[in-house]
Design goal:
The complex is a heterodimer. Chain A is an all-alpha fold. Chain A has ten helices and no strands. The chains are: A mainly alpha, B mainly alpha.
Chain lengths: ~180, ~180
């Protein structure tokens, strides 16, 4: 065994991890090579010093900190589990709300369309107002609310007789007996 | 390595905090000092020790007794320590002065010990974390090669070569320190 190989095996020799034949070889080399023998002693001295590094006591407050973190994690887990267990409920509620809002908006719009259609029908068929005249106000929902507030401009435009009939019509909720 | 009683482990798995405090008492010193020597920093060592035991608490239910509980706990500890040590920008270590009750030491002895500790820790700090861990587990905490292989999940051959390399580097660092080159 040469010096390079011997020095490479210091660690395994120190820990008795060499095969018997390798162990014999290195011991033979160390007994005949002063330099390697010295090197091994120095090496061994340095490594064994690691054992002399003191172990420190654990700070007393550490256990309290660990217990505190365990407690906080428990609280967080409970909240999380609660939300998770209710997650499908939350999703369902959300979907229902969206659908309900959509249905409600649609219903309101339909109602308005119906009112507007009835109003237009009344204006055209009962009051004999031409479609051109009706086009004065483009948006029928505005007309309806507009008239409910008894806006003078439109009432004047339509005339007093028309105004009475119209107010009567509006008072009945915009219903007509027939549509022609 | 000495193992804790199996019943304590089983009670910990049932989330018995009393049993867990016993487990903590059993392993705290070794784990804390492992963290300290890996990070070279008291604050980091405290935080890491907390993290280790918190993970042990959270995951003890998953422990199936396929390995020793010590190996399992050390696996958690070494993973965290190596991660932390890798991320650390700079390590500076100051030895604590711990007076042992009843033991009278001269000032010279205390100073010598402090200097030696500083020298050794500085040399350790210069090693890569994945090499430093081998020195600490083998030369400081006395684990066998096969125990180290189990903890670090490597084969025996890897343990042998890494311990060899780590020690060679450590000795080199200590020689440099002696020369006053670093």
């Amino acid at each position: 065994m040469d010096c390079q190989k011997a020095r490479k095996n210091f660690s395994l020799y120190y820990d008795e991890q060499l095969t018997p034949s390798d162990k014999m070889e290195i011991e033979k080399h160390l007994s005949s090579c002063n330099s390697c023998a010295q090197e091994y002693l120095l090496w061994k001295e340095n490594i064994s010093k690691i054992l002399e590094i003191p172990d420190y006591s654990v700070p007393n407050h550490l256990w309290l900190k660990i217990k505190d973190r365990i407690q906080r994690n428990r609280q967080r887990s409970k909240t999380f589990l609660f939300l998770i267990s209710w997650r499908w409920a939350w999703v369902s509620i959300f979907i229902i709300l969206i659908l309900s809002s959509g249905l409600f908006i649609n219903y309101k719009r339909n109602q308005q369309l119906v009112k507007n259609a009835k109003l237009a029908d009344f204006l055209i068929n009962d009051l004999k107002i031409s479609t051109d005249e009706i086009m004065v106000v483009q948006n029928f929902s505005t007309v309806y609310d507009f008239l409910l507030e008894e806006n003078d401009y439109l009432i004047d435009y339509l005339g007093e007789e028309t105004e009475e009939s119209l107010l009567e019509f509006l008072g009945k909720g915009g219903e007509t007996d027939e549509a022609s | 390595m000495e193992e804790i009683d199996k019943n304590i482990i089983l009670n910990c798995q049932k989330k018995d905090i009393g049993a867990f405090s016993q487990m903590y008492e059993f392993y705290k010193k070794k784990i804390y000092n492992l963290c300290l020597r890996m990070t070279g920093n008291y604050q980091d060592a405290e935080e890491l020790t907390q993290d280790v035991f918190l993970i042990v608490w959270q995951k003890i239910g998953q422990f199936r007794f396929h390995s020793s509980i010590s190996s399992w706990i050390y696996q958690i500890a070494t993973n965290l320590c190596i991660d932390k040590a890798r991320r650390a920008q700079k390590i500076s270590f100051l030895p604590l002065t711990e007076a042992k009750a009843g033991k009278k030491e001269s000032m010279d002895e205390i100073l010598y010990k402090k200097e030696m500790e500083l020298k050794l820790q500085n040399a350790l700090n210069k090693l890569k974390p994945q090499h430093r861990i081998y020195i600490i587990l083998r030369d400081k905490q006395g684990f066998t090669y096969s125990e180290i292989a189990q903890i670090l999940r490597v084969n025996l051959g890897t343990v042998k070569s890494r311990i060899n390399r780590a020690r060679m580097q450590l000795v080199k660092e200590l020689k440099e320190y002696k020369k006053g080159g670093k």
